[in-house]
Amino acid sequence: MSLKKNKIKRKRLIWSLVIVAAGILLYLLFKDIPNPKKLGSGEYAESSQIMDRNGKMLYEIYADKNRTSVTLADIPDKMIKATLAIEDNNFYKHAGFDIKGIIRGLYRTIFQKRLQGGSTITQQLVKNALLSPERTWERKIKEALLTIITEIMYSKDEILEMYFNQTPYGGIMWGVESAARGIFDKNVKDLSLAEAALIAGLPGSPTKYSPFAHPDAAKNRQELVLKRMEELKYISKEEYEKAIKEELNYKLNRNEINAPHFVFYVREQLIEKYGIKKVTEGGLKVWTTLDPDLQKYAEEEVAKEIEKLKKQKVSNGAALITESKSGQILAMVGSKDYFDSEIDGKYNVTTALRQPGSSIKPLNYALGIESGKVTAASVFNDEETCFKVENQKAYCPTNYGYRYFGLQTLRNSLGNSLNIPAVKMLSLNTVQTFVASASAMGISTFKNSSDYGLSLTLGGGEVYMTDMAVAFGVFSNMGIRQNLVSILKVVDKNGEILEEYNYFPGDRVLSPETAFIVADILSDDGARSMVFGRGSMLNIKGHPEVAVKTGTTNEMRDNWTIGFTPEYVVAVWVGNNDNSKMGYLVSGTTGAAPIWNRIMSKVLENKAVKNFTRPSGVITINVCNLTGQLPPEGGCDSHNELFKKEFVPKLRIPLQNNILIDKTTGKIVKEGENNPNAEWQNRLSVQEATGEWVCLDCPKDEENN
Q: Could you give the strand order of the β-sheet that contains 568-575, starting from the edge strand earlier in sequence?
């Protein structure tokens, strides 16, 4: 009796141990088992797509897996059948495990020495999406359990859709859509039978069958897929033979970036707004403002011209095309070649700090015209001049080439980019007022006026090309500032619109009258002919309304050409990233100007001529050449000039010779006044701001300039 009791106790103990062991085993297996609900949650990382304005892909942003999800309805029947043929033709018949497939795989592995697995599509999905890749018994048991649960939880179509979105096809390509784009530069729905068969064969061994690394193996695998499709009656013999012969055109560069500087400019904006995780893993679709044709043309022209300028010690160039009314960026070329490591091609000049040279002058003159301190007819004396600066050495600017042209109107001074009149204009405006005005027009880098001097009007302060496009856009847009726009629409992976561009007019920062007068001056070929000659590269054939300004910095480190029409702004720069000097032939109508001319010509190709709209507040008046005032009785050498109505000239100054002038002050000596500094003069003009007579040959201090 006691023996029998002992046996019962031993059995109970053994079963207890078995139950405990089984419990421990199940605990060990299930404690880290993933939740199958994750498969259908859509929470996996998905790449974001940056596209041009037409919806064509520029670049995909991703963390470590480039993935774009598609629905089963988006996947063509040929792709589905190709996948089922090579991976799991009994998919819709089994409950997660294909016993015949397992036996067949073992037979071919053992007896035919052909390594073949027997995993079903469901098993592969579980393995790829939920489990780690190591080959252990523990993982195999987890895979089996999860396969059963997955088949219970999801329909066959849901499993197949998840498979197509969560299967690796080689490298960073995860999902069939990513594979189609990465290999053939197509959407999966547009694949041919031959292309679909090649992609369907990749999951078996993405590295071994890579069409880029092993094209022969990839082709053989594709033919095997097509043969299986024919054997299963998925395709006809004729379809098989046609697909076998079809030439496969692989995308040359799987990691290609179109418009790279623009793409990363947009990427930074997206990250700032949505955070890096959402941008790299959130499956955003981003439509941008980029015009692909203009972008391609601008890239080619910059590269072509920089190649010609090598002998002039120029290694890089950049260009920016914007639409002035909307602020939309149509093209952004940050360097001659993004992938050129010798010049640090990734350096984006359009968003880098560079000195603008004389291209900043229109903003200075616009301030003077806006305030009424000067008009387009005001006369400046372009001669060697030094300006006193408090507690500093006198500032003595020079003209380019050390040439001086005497009395010149504001129109001619700006058109020919004369330095001395520009500095006199800034002295009259004051640096403080100019910094505030330029900032309002879009120059974000001019902050503390005490950091600058009179050289600011000659390019003594650094700017961004993007800011210059905004500022010149103010002239183009008749005084309205429109900030730059690069994104038209952002949609998340669920189809929800996160943002969408809507046009809103910007702030008025300049009167339309001033904007029109500046635009008229900068489009006047005659006004710039003294320095640039007539019919130069600053003219666009068939479009006389194009306004343009050049700029070259001291010591030839930056060369600019910026021009605009009533609709567009084109800015071009050439130079060297390291700020080294260029050759002295790079200035004026060379360097940036030829690139600008060709790009602007392309922008205006087949477009109707549009003139700047003349505001009602601008009138034309005939004035004397040497005074900028109304002709006196007896007349004078005169010309027609544009004026704002509130600042029309009112003086009729008679032509006088042998006027007695105080040579120290430049003012007229009144009759009967005893003045030892007086002398007779016959070259007289009118001071721009006051209308007073001044002596043009007398010494002048800063105050009288």
A: 329-333, 316-323, 568-575, 558-564, 547-552
Task: Give the β-pairing of 66-67 and 406-409.
Answer: unpaired
Determine contact, residues 39/257, Cβ cutoff 8 Å: no
Half-sphere exposure of 49 (CA within 13 A, CB side): 20
Residue 107: pLDDT over 60:
no
- pLDDT tens for 461-495 read 999 999 999 999 999 999 999 999 999 999 998 88
DSSP three-state, residue 32: coil
Residue 256 tokens read as 């290609």
* % of the chain exceeding 70 in pLDDT: 81
Place of tokens 């952004």: 332
pLDDT at 256: 67
Average pLDDT over the chain reads 84
pLDDT of residue 52: 95
Whether 266 and 348 have beta carbons less than 8 Å apart is answered as no
Bridge partners of residue 316, in order along the sequence:
575
Inform me whether the pLDDT recorded for 1 exceeds 70.
Answer: no
Contact between 326 and 482 under an 8 Å Cβ cutoff? The reply is yes
Q: What is the pLDDT of residues 271-318, one digit of tens each?
A: 888 887 788 778 899 999 999 999 999 999 999 999 999 889 999 999
Strand, coil or helix: 258: coil
The H-assigned helical ranges of 505-568 are: 512-522, 529-532
In this structure, the answer to whether residues 201 and 91 fall within a common structural domain is yes
Q: Does 392 map to a domain?
A: yes
One DSSP character per residue, 352-371 reads S-B--GGGGHHHHHHHHHHH
Token pair 């290694």 is found at 315
Q: Give the 3-state secondary structure of residue 47.
A: coil
Place of tokens 């974001």: 48
**Listed residue (270, 284, 288, 273) closest to 45, CA to CA:** 284
Asked if residue 267 is part of any domain, the answer here is no
- Compute the radius of gyration of the chain from its Cα atoms: 37
Which range among 196-200, 268-272, 581-585, 692-696 shows the weakest confidence by mean pLDDT?
A: 692-696
- Kindly give the residue spans of alpha helices, DSSP state H, lying in 580-662: 592-603
- Tell me how far apart the alpha carbons of residues 518 and 509 are, in angstroms, rounded to a whole number: 14
Residue 613 has which token pair? Answer: 């709209």
Domain region containing 701: 656-705
Q: Say whether both 178 and 310 belong to one domain.
A: no
| Measured distance CA(550)–CA(591) in Å, rounded | 10
Residue 437, in any domain of the structure:
yes
User: Which H or E run includes 573?
Assistant: strand 568-575
Find tokens 């020079």 and name the residue.
398
DSSP strand pairing (618-624 vs 329-333): unpaired
Same domain, residue pair 110 and 214: yes
538 within 8 A of 593, measured Cβ to Cβ: yes
Measuring CA to CA, which residue among 394, 565, 544 is closest to residue 472?
565
- 188: how many CB neighbours lie within 10 A of its CB? 23
Q: What is the dihedral of CA 441, 444, 449, 455, to 10 degrees?
A: -80
Tokens of 563: 């021009």
Could you tell me whether strands 48-51 and 497-500 are parallel, antiparallel, or unpaired per DSSP bridges? unpaired
Q: How far apart are CA 191 and CA 184, in angstroms?
A: 8
Give the bridge partners for 508, in sequence order.
480
Query: Is residue 525's pLDDT more than 90?
Result: yes
3-class state of residue 683 by DSSP = coil
- Verify that 87 and 156 share a domain, yes or no: yes
Range of weakest confidence among 150-159, 576-585, 678-687, 688-697: 688-697
Q: Helix %, strand %, coil % for the chain, to 5?
A: 40, 15, 40
Shortest CA distance to 85 belongs to which of 170, 239, 196?
Answer: 196
